[in-house]
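Human: You know discrete backbone vocabularies at least as well as I do. Show me how you would write down a chain together with its backbone fold. No explanation is needed for now; the record alone will do.

Assistant:
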Amino acid sequence: MESSDVELDLQRSVQAVLRELSAQAPALQSNQGMWRWSLHKKVERDPAKSPALVRILLRELEKAESEDLRHVIIPLLHTLMYVLTKATGITEELYRRTYTFCTRLLTLPAPYCTVALDCAIRLKTETAVPGTLYQRLVIAEQNLTSELYPYQERVFLFVDPELVSPSVCSALLLEIEAAQVQQTPEACMRHVVSHALQAALGDACHASALQRKLKASPRGALERYFHAVVAAVEQMASDPSPSREGHQERLEEIYCSLLGPAAAARGRYCGDPLQDPQPSIPLPSPHITFHLWTDEEQLWKELVLFLRPRSQVRLSADLEALDLQGLWPDRELARASMLSTDSGIERDLPSGADEPPGPGSPETERAGLQRKGGIRKRVWPPDVAMPACWAGPQGLHRRTGVPGGVGELVPGVSRLHTARVLVLGDDRMLGRLAQAYHSLRKRETQKFCLTPRLSLQLYYIPVLAPEKPASCRHSELRELATFLGRADPWYESTVNTLCPAIHKLAEMPPSLDTSRTVDPFILDVITYYVRMGTQPIYFQIYTVKIFRDLSQDPAEDIFLTELNVKIQDSKLPKDGFSPRRRGVAEGPGAELSICYQKALLSHRAQEVTSSVRATGLVLKALPASDTEDHTCLNVSVTEVVKSSNLAGRSFSTVTNTFRTATIQIQSQDQRLLTLLLDKDGRRMFRDVVRFEVAPCPEPCSGARKTKAPWLGSHQLEVEGTKAKPKPLLMPINTFSGIVQ
């Protein structure tokens, strides 16, 4: 195909993606989500098209910038970065144009500047050391052993077998296994070596001969070439001023050792015009494990096993015996902060204050934080045992390619693991995820064993049971997916369109032939989402206290999307604890006492108390429109209105709505309440007298007491003032976050 024909074909595909984003082509709805995938497949099958596609995408980005078409900037930028990660024939000039464009986007508001900054950081390294992005991605996702880049990632795919059909589960599992059966460690190492050499040497690299040589190499020789290439790339990438020419020289030495000086020189100077077309180097899909969510603590178990191999850990029945080699011998030590009494001025400190206390000294035993020159410094006891399999290299930071969200929360312990938890289902599945996330965060306040070493990323793909298009139940169960699609148009186009394709895959007969090459659409979209979806949207988790008996402690639970309240037909017993009000007219519903903090723009506290007769309530945590605040509850009360006429007394209903962050509701007559959390019939509470809803706080330790020495002989005991608890927010990753 001629060069002009290639560019014209790619241009048409890019325009189809843009039309889909602009919603100007209703006829394309049936193919929604396919255009981006088919565009990437074109350059994957013919890598020589990559430079042309990069030029086209850059032109479209510059056009969108000049015409202020911001809704297409982030989708085009993600598409461009995905091409640059895989490609090998990109010129330095194209890299620099892309980097310059990203730096111009830094003047725009979030999320544009956030996404552009992330791309610019990666492009700066890729421009000087081509092939870095591909190499790091494959090493981390395939868990290849490398001392210079020790990061590991894993995708945990969770489905609820009670919400997702067995045919869908089987189809997804077969597609994942069919793709991963060909991704052996040897194949992945060959891909890394081939890609690094082609990206650095360009046309001087005889790609076909190189791949034939690598396939014929034994495992030991292949590992030596792999580690040599990784060392060359990582050492140059970590250099403060990396040299593209120096990097090329080092990889040329490895190339000559592979093919021999004669073959290398022939490829460099003669170009070998008769050689085969440039072979494609696939980017392997990430390591995905498939899980049926049957245990409430299954997420925590899998994360522990990811950090430590199954052979090195034994899970007890209640999981409380596992303290991961006693990371915190004194739990209070890492959490307590001492009240400082010095002025913070160096000359006012007593002699020897700058030296840390010795091992076993009383100072070490009393304090977890020591004041030094006005700066709080965390002192860790010498007997804290850091497991050798977790201790990472010192000084790893963003410049050396630390994955996003990875850093050092504890001195000397690097967060080398990234767990990408992907859940499939509807709003009920997200309610279970919120429960697991809250339980995990609460457990971390006691053991603190995962957070220092693990970066947790959450993803969501809506999968609903096939129903009639007009079904109200179908739309009710995907409210959070609808919100994510409104907030992020690229999520709507790429992820929210997967549900029909997944059901179509489940209806196809399974293919047991894993030898033939297939294009797994579902797996490719999942891979694209977990790689490029780096911008989270945070959702408030709400806690509900449920009273069945006002004289006893309440039960507690949480919800993420909705709390539905219905009035039961049953009566309270005569000796019930809810007060009976006389003179209440009989009619539908129940008399409810409602007390809530009204949500105001000024954020001032305004308490409202009312008594209404209602047939039900719905508390929704998701806003109905983009202009509403998504950190408040939208409460809809179906109120009973009594009217009298010549025909007698009649009742009608009217729905009143208000917004609040906290609310308490109690039945005032002999009617009990039924609560349904997150639309999940398995999370139903009956015979409820009263309930209270408030934002779920971040799990934290209780207030401490300390003495104030400056009070002299009084020695008054002062209770440590406890700051207002921060709300617990659950992040779900999208491509851009909330686009205003």
